[in-house]
Amino acid sequence: MAIVDDGIGDHQGELVKRFLEEGKRLEGALHWRPKRTRTDYVWTSHSIVILSGCLDAGILHLTAHVSRLPRKSGFNLMWRKAVILRLDVSPGTPHFNASSKTSVVGTHWQPWPDHEAEADSRDLDHREWLRVFCDRANIAFHGRQYRPPPFAREQLELPL
Question: In this structure, is residue 113 part of a structural domain?
Answer without folding.
Answer: yes
